[in-house]
Amino acid sequence: MPSAERDRRVVRALCAWFARDQRDLPWRETRADGRRDPYRSLVSEIMLQQTQVARVTEKFAPFVERFPTVHALAAAPIDDVLALWSGLGYYRRARSLHRCAQEIVDRFGDVPENTEDLQSLPGIGRYTAGAIASIVFDEPAPIVDGNVVRVLLRIDGQDLDPKAPETAAHCWDRADRLVRVASRSRTNGVSPGVFNEAMMELGALVCTPRSPACDRCPVRGSCAAHREGRQHEIPRPKAAPDRRTLHMAAVLVRDARGRVLAEQRPDTGLWAGLWQPPTIESGSEIRKAMVSKHFGLASAALSRENAFLWQTSHRAVRVVAYASDRAPADSAAAGRHWLSRAQLGRRALGSLQRKLLLGPPTGKGTA
Fold this sequence. Notes:
Blueprint: H1 4-21, H2 38-48, H3 53-66, H4 70-75, H5 78-85, H6 92-107, H7 115-119, H8 126-137, H9 146-156, H10 165-184, H11 192-205, H12 224-227, E1 244-253, E2 260-264, E3 275-276, E4 279-282, H13 288-295, E5 302-311, E6 315-324, E7 336-339, H14 341-345, H15 351-358
Parallel strand pairs: 1-6
Antiparallel strand pairs: 1-4, 2-3, 2-7, 5-6
């Protein structure tokens, strides 16, 4: 077990480095009282789950401008929330955040201050609760995500499987010990929130999965992996994800006014509530004859426009897009609408759906 003195050195060095080198991010702004806004912290933490900081930085300001308080978010229609979430992926998070805001208003009146109450809310697990409680309210709550696991295993020189349950237990224990060191510290600028953010920042900017910048690391003198030259071996490489194959066939139809026929996906399941062209899906290949029969269109009315592979975290989606000068037989079905490009831009679209309806996406797709 690392010594108490080494832990104190790590905590002090990380907090001092963060004070100097932290990124200027919009959710890190403080109020007049010098504290973070708990609602903005909540929104940012949910957005940052499985999404790059650069993409969240793009989307955060418009989102909190449209929904400036937890009460405004709770009262908003879910379709408006999903539309502002477009481009962030993992749309289940948007639905969870919306339900979370509603429960906060109903049960607490404002964002609760402790991890127990926070974890009782939809979409908030131990990590998110710890981040909000420590950063905003200075509770000595640990946080552990992929970045923190990597930093902790390297600092302690632990050659463990990062996905193993015992590794998670080890890292939560180490994070808890360190954040309590930060809580007890009398050094200026050291606190649980600052330490937790410093750990995340170090993993994101310096102690990266590949090519860690050890020459710029504030704790390299205390890092066992660096001392032993094993920083490239720890943690063990992750196995490639096992993605299930999904086949998707879409029909793109435009009317004389240039509007596109679009439908909204169900409220549950993959890409829940997002808009798309009329689409069918299957676990096996979808042939043109199947598309023709499903949509009541003659085979001659369908021309193959595009075919590509789209990767999500859990699926390999094989997409075939057909263009047609005729609308499907059930084009007036509930949930289908003729939408202009401007109208589509205000609807909730995932990156894949945006590629089909509006052109190439700006990033990778996510389920």
